[in-house]
From TrEMBL, chain A:
Protein family: Belongs to the cytochrome ubiquinol oxidase subunit 1 family.
Name the record gives this protein: Cytochrome ubiquinol oxidase subunit I
Top-level taxonomic group: Bacteria
Subcellular location: Cell membrane
Topology class, membrane: Multi-pass membrane protein
Predominant cellular place of this UniProt entry's protein: membrane
Matching Pfam families: Cyt_bd_oxida_I (PF01654)
Residue stretches spanning the membrane: 15-38, 58-80, 86-113, 125-149, 177-200, 221-239, 322-347, 359-381, 406-429
InterPro entries, A to Z: Cyt-d_ubiquinol_oxidase_su_1 (IPR002585)
UniProt entry keywords in alphabetical sequence: Cell membrane, Electron transport, Heme, Iron, Membrane, Metal-binding, Transmembrane, Transmembrane helix, Transport
TrEMBL record, chain B:
Family membership: Belongs to the cytochrome ubiquinol oxidase subunit 2 family.
Subcellular location: Cell membrane
Organism (species): Ectobacillus antri
Principal cellular location given in the protein's record: membrane
A single MF term (Gene Ontology): oxidoreductase activity
Lipid bilayer topology: Multi-pass membrane protein
Keyword field: Cell membrane, Membrane, Oxidoreductase, Transmembrane, Transmembrane helix
Protein name: Cytochrome d ubiquinol oxidase subunit II
Top EC class for this record: oxidoreductase
Length: 449, 341
């Protein structure tokens, strides 16, 4: 591999790893806040136990989110020094505000985790609220930088690379900021809720549970299913706006995602299959006539630009079509299962009682991993679909990349590190919850903390 | 003052804040390892300080990187290229240390491993971090060719680099010992105070000796730097006075505690000592960020970004300050915290 490819692989790996923990940081903080609110509202101590146990998991995940975030933050400069040079001149603002968001989150997270028993209940809620705000703000801010890479704004550049006429706020609120940020936050909330639902669903599959435990898991399941479904619907709305935004500002990316070569009205939407650049068509996929035009402009007459409009050397890679489909598929699955489960609950379970069927619980257990995969696919689509640009239209990935030595051995070292951290995280989570079983905690003799 | 001077002053302040917080953080990790089997509370107190604070300290590190990129993006370009391997290694060490910090809090059976990991990384990370100083002074970077590269052979065969490391480590341990001495007294453990007081007494003179050796042993390539240092003698002199005040305060009688020493004064004086010394050091370094190619002027960011960042700093600090004060009172002043739950 040449150094540019290596840097891309290295950075992609680091981000793909960080994003798991970062997304859960955003999603779980909202869920824990909801548990605390429900507890104080309904005075049902089960919700307090839920908040407490999820906070434990959250704190463990945070222990990976923060160092890996530090890693990606520093690696932006290490692996993409050419990019960092322009970042510093134009889009330093979101990175700087993000530091303050991290401080906010770190302060109140430490307060909530290490001093929860010393706080009054309203102070506990307030700390959690700040944690949630800090985490969500981190997501929004980093997305500002990422959307700016896709649709750069707020500066001009001379042919020699000199930057002038900078307007930091115009860069911050670039054309795809609102669609990108809302989509990222909503999908993170959905994934957080999906993971909570998945764990509850999985726990309900276990046999020999006391009625007390089953009641507890059901409460968590219902709440998280409602959240997953609500966020799932919002996911389609914001995803749709993102697609319209691509149509307006990054037509090449949309064309590659849909395998569209000829500019046309009444453009079809291709689902599945893969793009064959030789015959210029999507093979083995299902084509829905007119759907793409309707999707991007609400009318079949909408003209969608095809790839032949652009020079082939700036075409994004065709595998982005697969990632786009996988992302939308993940959305379909999570929304469908959570909707189905809620319908079952309301129409059948609510009236007849009894146990939730196994097939339903297994499907629910799948939405946690599936929504995390959706996040990964979405990012790979967004970042790879920008290729060969790092800053669309301004800086190519080859110009951004580092020329330092030792990239390959360092990459190896990091792969080992990430594997090690993954294994350790799973072990720590499992051991912790095995040592602190649910039942004693529920029965109010506290359990050992 | 022009914009560049304000920017470098802010950057200096952020780096200084990190070097103090980082020294205490990494040093506490080291002391927790050294005193693991000591009969006093020394190890426990060090860990108690670390658990709620490492995350904030880590955020200050990210702050340094972001401030650097924001204010001097072109210098960030050069430094990122030449320091690629050492900084990447630092990241690995930080990742392992931080995760263990959290995991050991959740599962006490990892505590022993944590002590060892945070003790060893508490020495390795600062030692690697400080290599950036000799590198930016020039002589270890090859600017010919189409990209800058670090001359590893020359760097690691140069005694000056090792003196810098030694200096970094002694000052880290000195400062953290003083801080923990004060923290122990704040927590009401006189016995632990005595342990850390002894460590500080032992390390104080070592920091002075290693500092002087490190500066004098700087290679001839950096003779521009030595000349500049001479011009900042007043700062170093004030710094020395603060050292003397801080160090001797460990022997002043303290009636309230019925023993010797005023650790609070010692900590503050030594922080002032480092502030003056590092200001003198920084001033001598100017106008170069990386000698001889990268200066403050050539690497400065755009004016628009600079002023926006300036406003953000003011707003951000105003909003966060109450949070920090609340945090300080909650964890560092509260005695019930140390007595365990
Ligand atoms: C659970 C995760 C998830 C799910 C189910 C979806 N997305 Fe998504 N999508 C993301 C997670 C994501 C993301 C990780 O948040 C991305 C990557 C970069 C970004 O800004 O958001 C993203 C980007 C992204 C982009 C590219 C934006 C850009 O590159 O500028 C488009 C067009 C869509 N999404 C559209 C959709 C549609 C139509 C969906 C169907 C409902 C959908 N997404 C579901
Ligand atoms: C290049 C991209 C990214 C960089 C440079 C980056 C940087 C960082 C850094 C430095 C931290 C640790 C902060 C600390 O020291 O406290 C962190 C944590 C975090 N990051 Fe990232 N990050 C990136 C991608 C993302 C994305 C895409 C998201 C949102 C979807 C995100 C959300 C978060 C959150 C929420 C945290 C806090 C940890 C938690 O709450 O779990 N980051 N990030
Ligand atoms: C957290 C989720 C993210 C994931 C999983 C992700 C994934 C990737 C991948 C796979 C690549 C390599 C692209 C390729 O070579 O085809 C890449 C490149 C890159 N991404 Fe992202 N990305 C994420 C978010 C971000 C964010 C938030 C930023 C910046 C603020 C960012 C900045 C970059 C940069 C600078 C590159 C390298 C240059 C380039 O290939 O364009 N990424 N990322």
């Amino acid at each position: 591999m040449d150094t540019v490819t290596l840097s891309r692989a290295f950075f992609g790996t680091s981000l793909a790893f960080h994003i798991i923990f970062a997304t859960l940081g955003i999603g779980l903080s909202l869920m824990i806040l909801l548990f605390e609110i429900l507890y104080q509202w309904k005075k049902d101590s089960d919700y307090a136990v839920m908040a407490k146990r999820w906070t434990k998991a959250f704190a463990i995940l945070l222990g990976v989110a923060i160092p890996t975030g530090t890693i990606v933050g520093v690696q932006i400069a290490l692996l993409w020094p050419g990019f960092a040079k322009i970042v510093g001149q134009v889009i330093a603002v979101p990175f700087q505000i993000e530091i303050f968001a991290f401080f906010l989150e770190a302060l109140f997270m430490s307060i909530y985790v290490y001093a929860a028993d010393k706080l009054s209940s309203s102070l506990r809620l307030l700390s959690l609220f700040f944690v949630m705000i800090g985490a969500t703000a981190s997501g929004i801010l980093i997305t500002s930088a990422n959307t700016w890479m896709n649709t750069p704004a707020g500066f001009s550049m001379r042919p020699d690379g000199t930057v002038y006429d900078v307007n930091p706020w115009e860069a911050f609120f670039n054309p795809s900021f609102y669609t990108g940020a809302s989509h990222v936050v909503i999908t993170a909330y959905a994934a957080g809720a999906g993971v909570v639902a998945a764990v509850a669903g999985y726990k309900l599959l276990k046999r020999n549970q006391s009625a007390r435990e089953i009641a507890y898991h059901k409460k968590g399941l219902l709440l998280s299913l409602i959240m997953t479904f609500a966020m799932g619907i919002m996911m389609w709305v914001t995803g749709h706006s993102s697609a319209i935004n691509l149509h307006e500002h990054s037509p090449e990316k949309l064309a590659a995602a849909e395998g569209l070569f000829e500019t046309q009205s009444h453009a079809p939407l291709a689902i599945g299959g893969f793009v064959d650049p030789v015959t210029q068509e999507v093979k083995y996929g299902i084509e829905i006539p007119w759907a793409l035009s309707i999707l991007t402009g609400l009318s079949p007459d909408t003209v969608v630009k095809g790839l032949n409009e652009f020079p082939p050397e700036t075409w994004p890679p065709f595998y982005t079509h697969v990632f786009f489909n996988l992302m939308v598929g993940a959305a379909g699955w999570t929304t469908m299962i959570s909707g189905l489960a809620l319908a079952y609950w309301y129409f059948i379970h609510h009236k007849r009682g009894g146990k939730l069927p196994k097939w339903l619980l297994w499907s629910i257990a799948s939405i946690g991993p599936v929504s995390m995969l959706g996040i990964e696919f979405g990012w790979i689509f967004s970042c790879s679909g920008r290729q060969p640009w790092t800053i669309y239209g301004f800086q190519r990935t080859t110009e951004a990349a580092t020329r330092a030595d030792f990239i390959a051995p360092m990459y190896m070292l990091f792969i080992v590190l990430y594997v090690f951290l993954s294994v350790l995280t799973v072990i720590v989570l499992r051991t912790f919850f095995r040592r602190h079983p649910l039942l004693p905690e529920l029965e109010g003799n506290g359990g050992k903390v | 003052m022009n914009e560049q001077s304000i920017a470098i002053l802010i950057l200096w302040a952020v780096i200084f804040a990190y070097s103090i917080l980082g020294s205490i953080d990494f040093g506490a990790g080291f002391w927790a390892m050294v005193y693991a089997n000591h009969k006093s509370l020394a190890s426990k107190i060090a860990n108690r300080y670390l658990s709620p604070t490492w995350e904030l300290t880590n955020t200050v590190l990210v702050f340094v990187v972001v401030a650097f990129i924001g204010f001097f993006p072109k210098a960030a370009y050069t430094l990122a290229t030449i320091m690629f391997a050492p900084v990447t290694l630092i990241l690995v060490l930080i990742a392992i240390r931080s995760t263990f910090m959290v995991f050991a809090y959740s599962l006490p059976r990892y505590e022993k491993m944590l002590r060892i990991i945070s003790g060893i990384t508490g020495l390795l990370i600062p030692a690697l971090l400080i290599t950036v100083l000799p590198v930016t002074e020039g002589g270890y970077v090859d600017f010919s060719g189409d990209t800058e590269s670090l001359l590893y052979g020359k760097l690691f065969s140069s005694p000056a680099v090792y003196f810098y490391m030694l200096f970094g480590l002694t000052s880290e341990l000195f400062l953290s010992a003083l801080f923990l001495a004060d923290f122990s007294r704040e927590q009401g453990s006189e016995e632990t105070y005595q342990v850390y007081r002894r460590s500080a007494i032992f390390l104080g003179p070592a920091t002075l000796v290693t500092a002087i050796i490190a500066l004098v042993a700087t290679d001839v390539d950096a003779s521009w730097f030595l000349d500049n240092l001479m011009k900042q003698i007043p700062f170093f002199a004030i710094s020395l006075i603060f050292f003397v005040v801080g160090y001797t305060s460990l022997w002043w009688t303290n009636r309230a505690h019925n023993s010797l020493g005023w650790p609070r004064i010692a900590v503050l004086a030594v922080i002032a000592q480092y502030a003056f010394a590092s200001y003198g050091y920084g001033a001598s370094h100017l106008p170069y960020l990386v000698y001889p190619d990268v200066t403050v002027d050539t690497s400065f960011t755009t004016k628009e970004t600079f002023y926006t960042l300036l406003v953000l700093y003011a707003i951000g600090i105003a909003i966060l300050l109450p949070g920090f004060i609340f945090f300080w009172n909650l964890f560092l002043k509260d005695r019930t915290f140390i007595k365990g739950k």
